[in-house]
Amino acid sequence: MFKNHLTFFKGAVSLPTQTFFNLPEEKKNRIIRAAIQEFAAYSFDQASIAHIIENAGIPRGSFYQYFNNLKDVYKYIINLAGEQKIKYFQETVPQFEGKGFNFFSALRDLCTAGFQFALENPELLAIGNNFIKETNKSLRDEILGEQLPKAQNFYETMLHKGIELGQIDPHIDPHIATLFIGAWSTAFTELYLAELKNLAHDNPEDVCALLTNKQFQQKIDQMIDLLVNGLANKPFSTVSE
Amino acid sequence: MFKNHLTFFKGAVSLPTQTFFNLPEEKKNRIIRAAIQEFAAYSFDQASIAHIIENAGIPRGSFYQYFNNLKDVYKYIINLAGEQKIKYFQETVPQFEGKGFNFFSALRDLCTAGFQFALENPELLAIGNNFIKETNKSLRDEILGEQLPKAQNFYETMLHKGIELGQIDPHIDPHIATLFIGAWSTAFTELYLAELKNLAHDNPEDVCALLTNKQFQQKIDQMIDLLVNGLANKPFSTVSE
Amino acid sequence: MFKNHLTFFKGAVSLPTQTFFNLPEEKKNRIIRAAIQEFAAYSFDQASIAHIIENAGIPRGSFYQYFNNLKDVYKYIINLAGEQKIKYFQETVPQFEGKGFNFFSALRDLCTAGFQFALENPELLAIGNNFIKETNKSLRDEILGEQLPKAQNFYETMLHKGIELGQIDPHIDPHIATLFIGAWSTAFTELYLAELKNLAHDNPEDVCALLTNKQFQQKIDQMIDLLVNGLANKPFSTVSE
Amino acid sequence: MFKNHLTFFKGAVSLPTQTFFNLPEEKKNRIIRAAIQEFAAYSFDQASIAHIIENAGIPRGSFYQYFNNLKDVYKYIINLAGEQKIKYFQETVPQFEGKGFNFFSALRDLCTAGFQFALENPELLAIGNNFIKETNKSLRDEILGEQLPKAQNFYETMLHKGIELGQIDPHIDPHIATLFIGAWSTAFTELYLAELKNLAHDNPEDVCALLTNKQFQQKIDQMIDLLVNGLANKPFSTVSE
DNA sequence: TATGAATGAGAATTCATTCAT
DNA sequence: TATGAATGAATTCTCATTCAT
């Protein structure tokens, strides 16, 4: 999940105890909100159970009736976030079906949706960002391992379709392209976060206007253009022949 | 330093105490090795002094005669790694001087050198990777702040030269291009690490042959091609016009 | 508090955690006793959490569930001691109200009560003594700052009343008089401690008889006489005119 | 020594090693100065060998060739300070010999000399102050025990002479009077230090004028007057009869 | 189940003193 | 003797997890 703002996995591993699920909605949500807040603010290693129970307003002992340990809450939250993201995309992005599919316009749609989601769920974006940076290898692998099977990489699906329809250079190894798009997308997220911070400084109230902001739109276009056409000044490019 | 495997800074902040520098080479190296090992395996927050002194085989108190705290060793090691990398590149990569400069072939040289360095110093690569992911903002800024002035971003230099010589599309915003190359470089590192792991599984002894390995060479070429020409199947690309 | 054995403040700053206050009386008292013992025996800087938890028979971690650090226990104990002293005096010393007030007899009452209190609470006396000697200025100021607002300096109150009623030489600067009484009081405490030690040597069991001891009573009278009439053999005193 | 700024002991216990005394004057003085500085700034418990060697500019190991431990330096310095004070007084204060002796004017002379000394040797005053506040009982006793035999309490000598010459109320127990004068003197020191601090704030350059400052002279006179004649408004004092 | 107190394993750091050269 | 590195005991503080009610 969250290799970047446009990648995600679908997962449904049930880690909290049954006791947790039996909780009244309000309390359950308080706990979830506190956990989201915690993992948005801190990496897994810096997150603490103490913070979560304090923000959720539940007793220490209760925590252990709902989860085995911090890792389990983490997995649960990562999972939840992934589900929300998938749900959002499924509702928002036109499914890449039918003949009308165009890889590059679909890409732009996906980007826009991604930024929209990030705008509406800044904490989930932060959680994703923290997860990407997670260096605890065994934790990473454990989470990815559990979720990868159900992962649904929109990019990969799109890519294959694009190749199929001849919109993408057929010489390109799809695996490498996927890797590249992933990194490209992460860089995009960084750009987005940097812009957000600037806007927040200058004009906190119209952060929401970011997406319709002309300059930012131009940057999006440039990034997409780079991905599509590369760096080369076309007449001069020679290396890759 | 280490925004990715091809970016680095030159730095010379001296943080260990004089006592440390007075130590016999052998002992000093033992400590440095232990620290490198630690920061290669763990992020700054997960690294522990206990591990370092245990691996270096020095008593608890001695550590504090050499460094003030973990942060100081970290800075020292990051610095050392940066210096080694710069030294390596200066010795290996043909300086981009004179008329003969070609952005794309220079890029390939840089990549090859980067992989070579990573192959010879896998732990330094790991340290760099961990640093990129560092989420402790104040620590990041502190280290970058101390080293940025002396930073030397090869990509940026090259990019400007490439634009100057008309080898790169002049419409591209250099800032975004830098971001783009950064993403590309990160993807490259991931690719490299994945290959390494495969090789290590299959044929641990010829890891060193990776760079001359034909398949890997093809992948490098593909990556460069992606960067240069983009994804589009040229006759069909339309979006960015 | 405790500028000397007859001065004190009233304070009610609550520093321990709620957890501490929830503890069963017996355990709470064990901890309080251990802390009192510690601060009676050692100055703040020499006191150690290790001693307290050992004497209280609680585990290391528990201490930190009750207090944030040594300073907080210290403040709490100083405060407790102050409250006990005030309570004692309020119950024992006739309030200096009404016309019948006589500075000098009130002083004697106060002294007697002070010695009585010290006798019954030798550890609190020791704590007060250690606090007076506290050289850590910021700690002093912090504690005094928190408690001064509620401070009730019996001497000063009495002094002003004595001046008002013409019982004290009107030429005397009240500030200096306060200083003077402070010194006198300190000397008194020293005298008292010395006597206590002697008695303890000779006849440990009748320490309690100290106050009714005739010789000691005479010493008290002498001290008061010194304060009231000074050293001079009256007909000969000349210096201060 | 140093029960207050007018009390002191003479002592000559030689605690440093012979090696120390063999040192060239300059180096020896550097060490002494560093130690004085340290004990003026910190109480014994807070003082550290590290500070001293740093300020003296001597290596760690050397310290232990000159002294066994911190306590020994402390004793040595306390001793040195005492000797300096005695020397100063012997040179400055008219010896209380002959018929012309008057307790009260001698007292004023002593005070003035004491303040003068304090002004010229603020660090020694600070050391004395710190020693008075020393709560480490065994250390106190050890130092006092070693030095008391040779102690020379000017007050006590004077007092006896004053009684002898009928200048002091013969009913007064000399022991109690000594105790009282001691505390009085300490209070005096506090007053002096407070004034010093005020002056330092207002007019740092004329701190030296403090002693000739009229207001301060009046305070001295009031303090002496209180000691001589007591608090009572003479016609009304009744208690002590 | 809910609660919140109990616990102890670690982590960092300090510093006096000893030791080797 | 001079030097400065070596050492480890002591101290504070944190926190996940267990336990008793």
Notes on the structure:
The structure is a homotetramer. Chain A has about 240 residues and is an all-alpha fold. Chain A is about 65% helix and about 0% strand. Chain A has 11 helices and no strands. The first copy, chain A, has helices spanning about 20, 25-40, 50-55, 60-65, 70-90, 105-120, 120-130, 135-145, 155-165, 175-200, 215-230. Chain A starts with 17 loop residues before the first helix and ends in a 12-residue tail after the last helix. Chains in contact: A-B, C-D. At the C-D interface, helix 6, helix 10 and helix 11 of C face helix 6, helix 10 and helix 11 of D. Chain B binds a DNA duplex (21 and 21 nucleotides) through helix 4.
Secondary-structure blueprint:
Four copies of one chain form a homotetramer.
Chain A: H1 18-22, H2 25-41, H3 49-56, H4 60-66, H5 70-92, H6 103-120, H7 122-132, H8 137-147, H9 154-164, H10 174-202, H11 214-229
Helix pairs in contact in A: 2-3, 2-7, 5-6, 6-7, 6-11, 9-10, 10-11
The structure holds a DNA duplex (21 and 21 nucleotides).
- The rough form of chain A would be described as globular
Which two chains touch over the largest interface? C-D, 56 and 58 residues
What is the oligomeric state here?
homotetramer
How are helices and strands ordered from N to C of chain A? Answer: HHHHHHHHHHH
Distance between the termini of chain A: 36 Å
Number of strands of chain A: 0
Mean pLDDT of chain A: 83
Number of helices of chain A: 11
State the major sheet of chain A: none
Please bin the fraction of helical residues of chain A: 55-70%
What class, by secondary structure content of chain A? mainly alpha
Determine Rg of chain A (CA atoms, Å). 20 Å
Identify low-pLDDT runs of chain A: 5-13, 236-241
Provide the β-strand percentage band of chain A: under 5%
